[in-house]
Design goal:
mainly beta; 110 residues
């Protein structure tokens, strides 16, 4: 863990979390450590590619799980693309973000 700053901190990576993004990448993953401000971690997946992209999940602390709270993919009606953390779908493995979409997962108690 990084020294406390009292602010959320983040880490950009490629979709699978195996390295930093490079020039020309159209899909990136951002892991936001919000523990410093009393929140759950956020995993933000941005896919601006013309095709679906598989994103790897970051590890969560013991007793935590990822829940989908936002997905802007066209498969969801406009009024139903965000969910409360207690009803969002639990995501346990890689997540396929549709073309031109943003997905946000929140770590919550299991």
């Amino acid at each position: 863990r990084r020294p406390s700053t009292g602010r959320p901190s983040g880490l950009f990576s490629d979709p699978l979390g195996q390295g930093g993004p490079v020039g020309g990448d159209r899909s990136v993953r951002l892991l936001i450590d919000a523990g410093e401000v009393g929140g759950g971690d956020l995993l933000v997946m941005v896919n601006m590619a013309d095709e679906a992209v598989d994103f790897g999940l970051a590890d969560v602390a013991e007793g935590q799980q990822w829940r989908r709270i936002v997905d802007t993919a066209g498969i969801f009606p406009d009024e139903v693309n965000a969910w409360a953390s207690d009803v969002g779908v639990v995501i346990e493995s890689d997540y396929r973000a549709q073309a031109w979409s943003v997905v946000v997962l929140l770590s919550v108690p299991a």
